[in-house]
């Protein structure tokens, strides 16, 4: 029997970027919030002198324990789903700050096209351009409506970037908080080559601070040291924006946030179209508690948001056969695989130094910035050269044809350790009727609850996109004066290994139509007006960008929605 706790105005499930932003905004407004985090607490001090590639990058110190909870996957409904038993395709963060601790810091606002993708595609190409089975949907919000919330995130996080953006991305009403990061020789080669080809390169907007910065909440942080230990690591300097060094301290200083760690939420109680609270297990003791609340905010990772709704029987589960229901609908991933490696015999680069979001990119072949009339795919990819810091264990580049062991392998490894640059495309993943999330009927977690099951595979759309984008990466790499370039332009069946991207999206999609979305544009649930669901699970598709900027912008809008609802309950749509 769960111990019933005193009722609170708001309970937030998950204390990463989304939970931290919502908690900070509500507590600053004087609203009492309980934040539930199933992992342990963290602070900057936890990362002092821990440039340990083996521990963090290879043994996944910051990630979820897959022996206690994982996901199952299958490529289609004809095969049995099996659990992901070791990390490969994507990494599931755990602990205070969530994936906001181990991200790289690459910050891209989604394109205006993304938010109205169905309407814009039909307007330009007609209905027949969308292939059978592709379930494109507008998001129920426009870029211009979301733009002020992007600005809030950028000023809070101290996003570093150029003061203006190219005309093929969204307009900005205010420059980034700080100037761009340093330009490396590799970045200059990429940028110069792209300009010669008539493209519009720009510095990647970065959550790694280019200079010391104090944000509007008074949080002061130091500039990036370019150590190269960003992805899969916490930042010992606090230079990489993460919830633990930005929004969570602000919420805690108000005295209005009660943060409970090791609190694993297992269910949402609801009656009559409203949630009454959440049940959670205190994992060290196994004790069960029920936390009543006026508003429940789901702010956990994609899979956890969807799984919690399904196990709580809140909302209508998606049925791929009939196309009805919305919870679990439009799961999307990220389409990587298009790239060209440039090998140099006459140049060396200091590619051990870097930062997670240090690099240059272009969007000439992203979104609908180019004509798709005669192409066999929609959308596109952001093409980039990044210098994230190539660490010694995982970085071992050799040209094709090099033996996998022995003297020749060692000689090539030494020669090319600092003579290789990689140009890659990060492609959009668009939704299909047969790609979705549901509860696995066989496998359960350590608490006896069904695991999340993903049904997904790469489509012809994705394979054509990779082939096209790869040709553009080679065009740029060839222009960069390399001795030799090697292109990768093929994509096969999706597999849970090797690592590809942690950019999972969909399952609690937003929109204007309750029959094909779970939440409205304030991220308020159609089927339970006092439940707000926020994160990349809201995305109707995934863009050619990293998702964090759009997740952050939507979180600020959701916080505004919760505050409005508390003042005047009812639908905000």
From TrEMBL:
Signal peptide: none annotated. GO terms for molecular function: oxidoreductase activity, acting on CH-OH group of donors. This is GMC family oxidoreductase. PANTHER family: LONG-CHAIN-ALCOHOL OXIDASE. InterPro entries: FAD/NAD-bd_sf, GMC_OxRtase_C. Transmembrane segments: none annotated. Residues 437-555 form the Glucose-methanol-choline oxidoreductase C-terminal domain. It comes from Cohnella nanjingensis. Belongs to the GMC oxidoreductase family. Keywords: FAD, Flavoprotein, Oxidoreductase.
């Amino acid at each position: 029997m769960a111990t019933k706790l005193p009722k609170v105005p708001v309970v937030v499930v998950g204390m990463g970027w989304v939970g931290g932003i919502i908690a900070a905004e509500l507590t600053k407004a004087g609203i009492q919030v309980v934040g539930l985090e199933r992992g342990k607490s963290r602070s900057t001090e936890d990362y002092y002198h821990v440039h340990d590639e083996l521990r963090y990058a290879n043994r996944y110190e910051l990630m979820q324990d897959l022996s206690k909870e994982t996901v199952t996957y299958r490529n289609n409904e004809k095969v049995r789903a099996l659990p992901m038993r070791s990390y490969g395709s994507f990494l599931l963060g755990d602990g205070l700050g969530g994936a906001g601790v181990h991200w790289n810091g690459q910050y891209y606002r989604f394109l205006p096209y993304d938010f109205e993708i169905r309407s814009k595609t039909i307007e330009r190409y007609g209905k027949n351009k969308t292939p059978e089975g592709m379930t494109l949907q507008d998001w129920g919000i426009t870029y211009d409506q979301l733009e002020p919330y992007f600005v809030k995130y950028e000023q809070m996080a101290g996003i570093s970037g150029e003061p203006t953006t190219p005309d093929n991305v969204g307009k900005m009403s205010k420059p980034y908080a700080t100037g761009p990061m340093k330009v490396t020789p590799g970045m200059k080669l990429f940028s110069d080559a792209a300009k010669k080809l008539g493209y519009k390169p720009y510095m990647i907007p970065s959550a790694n601070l280019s200079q010391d910065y104090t944000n509007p909440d008074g949080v002061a942080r130091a500039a990036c040291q370019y150590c190269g230990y960003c992805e899969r690591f916490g930042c010992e300097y606090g230079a990489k924006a993460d919830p633990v060094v930005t929004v969570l301290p602000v919420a805690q200083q108000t005295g209005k946030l009660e943060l409970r760690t090791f609190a694993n939420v297992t269910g949402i109680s609801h009656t009559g179209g409203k949630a009454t609270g959440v049940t959670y297990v205190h994992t060290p003791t196994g004790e069960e508690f029920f936390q009543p609340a006026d508003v429940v905010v789901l702010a956990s990772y994609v899979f956890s948001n969807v799984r919690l709704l399904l196990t709580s029987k809140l909302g209508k589960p998606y049925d791929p056969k009939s196309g009805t229901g919305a919870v679990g609908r439009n799961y999307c991933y990220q389409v990587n695989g298009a790239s060209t490696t440039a090998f140099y015999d006459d140049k060396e680069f200091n590619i051990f130094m870097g930062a997670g979001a240090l690099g240059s990119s272009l969007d000439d072949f992203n979104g609908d910035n180019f004509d798709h009339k005669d192409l066999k795919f929609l959308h596109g990819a952001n093409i980039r050269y990044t210098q994230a810091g190539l660490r010694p264990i995982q970085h071992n580049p050799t040209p094709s044809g090099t033996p996998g062991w022995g003297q020749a392998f060692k000689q090539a490894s030494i020669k090319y350790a600092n003579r290789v640059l990689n140009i890659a495309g990060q492609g959009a993943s668009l939704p299909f009727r047969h790609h979705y999330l549901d509860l696995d009927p066989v496998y359960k977690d350590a608490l006896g609850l069904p695991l999340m099951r993903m049904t997904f595979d790469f489509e012809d759309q994705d394979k054509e996109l990779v082939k096209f984008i790869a040709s553009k990466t080679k065009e740029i790499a060839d222009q960069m004066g390399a001795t030799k370039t090697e292109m990768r332009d093929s994509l096969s069946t999706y597999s849970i290994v090797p690592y590809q991207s942690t950019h999972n999206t969909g399952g609690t999609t937003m929109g204007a139509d309750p029959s094909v979305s779970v939440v409205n544009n304030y991220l308020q649930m159609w089927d339970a007006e006092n439940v707000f669901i926020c994160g990349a699970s809201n995305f109707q598709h995934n863009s050619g960008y990293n998702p964090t900027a759009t997740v952050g912008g939507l979180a600020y809008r959701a916080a505004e929605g919760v505050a409005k609802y508390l003042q005047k309950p009812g639908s905000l749509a």
